[in-house]
Amino acid sequence: MANLILPPAWRIPEREVTPEPVYRNRRAFLKQLGVVGGGALSAAMIGCGDSGPSGNASKGGGNTGQVQVAAADSSVPSASDASGYPHPRNPDYDPGWTLTAEEAATSYNNFYEFTTSKTRVKELVGDFVISPWSIQVGGLVEEPLTLHLEDLLSLAPLEERVYRFRCVEAWAMVVPWTGYPLSKLIERCKPKSEAKYVYFETFNDPVQMPGIQKQRFYPWPYNEGLTMEEAMHPLTLVGTGIYGKPMPKQNGAPIRLVVPWKYGYKSIKSIVRMDFTATQPKTFWSSLSPEEYPFESNVDPGVPHPRWSQAAERMIDTGLRVPTQKYNGYGDQVARLYGG
Ligand SMILES: Nc1nc2c(c(=O)[nH]1)N[C@H]1C(S)=C(S)[C@@H](COP(=O)(O)O)O[C@H]1N2
Ligand SMILES: [Mo]
Predict the structure, then answer these.
(1) For ligand 1, is residue 56 a contact (CB within 6 Å)?
(2) Which of 21, 27, 41, 281 lies at a 20 to 30 A Cα distance from 330?
(3) pLDDT-above-70 percentage for the chain
(4) Distance CA 136, CA 256 (A)
(5) Average pLDDT of the residues in 309-322
(6) Using a 6 Å cutoff on CB, does residue 202 contact ligand 1?
(7) Is 42 touching ligand 1 by the criterion CB < 6 Å?
(8) 76 — pLDDT class (breaks 50, 70, 90)
(9) Residue 4 pLDDT more than 90?
């Protein structure tokens, strides 16, 4: 089965042909061996993550500590505050598709900070503290700023939109997201005209996120980027909820991106930092393997991943296989960004 996991030492062809349990055991075995190998890898591969545009999130994010105090203050909207939900569905993004079962979308997740096992993320996010929360904004802006969750949730009216979502691993779903266009947040950040890209970074805490300890060779923190044009596109959402409820932790609470025409890894979760840059920023998956996970990463059935076909996709709840659509079906809206 297609899989994102690709520490080079584990990038073995047998992954595709070995029955899952055997593969898992071999992986566990390699992991034990990997204490040394992983260390060597990290020296070779990390460089980017640690010295990224902003350093580590806990430094600037202010998302640790003071938890009980803030949680007790009922005047501050908290990440899990369901008041106001469900928000009205935007009729322009209500295509009448059958929604993926909520249970499937909230229990089959990629969130490597917790685990590389999609079915176990949900059970590991319990202690993840999502309130208080803030995003640090820096780089090419008029003035660096800190946006607290209450600012972030009141920047623009929250609305619901039904989007298709397609992971590079060839699974897909149809999700009612709650949020607002990223363009509203960007306007609030007042980027300078030299800004050509936006860099995003995820919360980075090895204590709350056990996967970070276990997968030391990954270039944490998780980071992503978009061109300004992509970021300002009306389809690009700041996601604050799904299925008419605040964002579950496993889906990237309290605030994440949703970029529906790109492979899922571009839709970074649990954002604590945004930097506006003149040059293309480093991204997590691209740092690991640029040929497999290029910066642009638009969904395209005609461009196979080096290790598997992208021609079809599997709906995560029904298992139904359907043809992949170019730009994940959003070509009418976005092809012009790419000269199409
Ligand atoms: N911080 C962070 N964001 C992330 C990931 C991750 O591991 N860490 N995985 C990405 C990938 S590969 C996908 S497919 C989507 C999955 O989102 P979901 O769990 O809500 O379906 O999140 C993306 N955002
Ligand atoms: Mo993904």
Answers:
(1) no
(2) 281
(3) 78
(4) 14
(5) 98
(6) yes
(7) no
(8) low
(9) no
- Structure-model confidence comparison of residues 312 and 39, the more confident one: 312
Q: Which tokens in the block code for residue 220? A: 């944490």
C-alpha of residue 167 to centroid of ligand 2, in Å? 4
Determine if ligand 1 sits within 6 Å of the CB of residue 243: no
Relative to the alpha carbon of 271, which ligand is closest? 1
Is residue 125 in contact with ligand 1, taking CB distance under 6 Å? Answer: no
pLDDT, mean over the chain: 84
Identify the pLDDT of residue 36: 32
Q: Is the pLDDT of residue 294 over 90?
A: yes
Residue nearest to atom 10 of ligand 1 (CA): 265
> Which ligand is located closest to the Cα atom of residue 269?
1
Residue whose Cα lies nearest atom 6 of ligand 1: it is 111
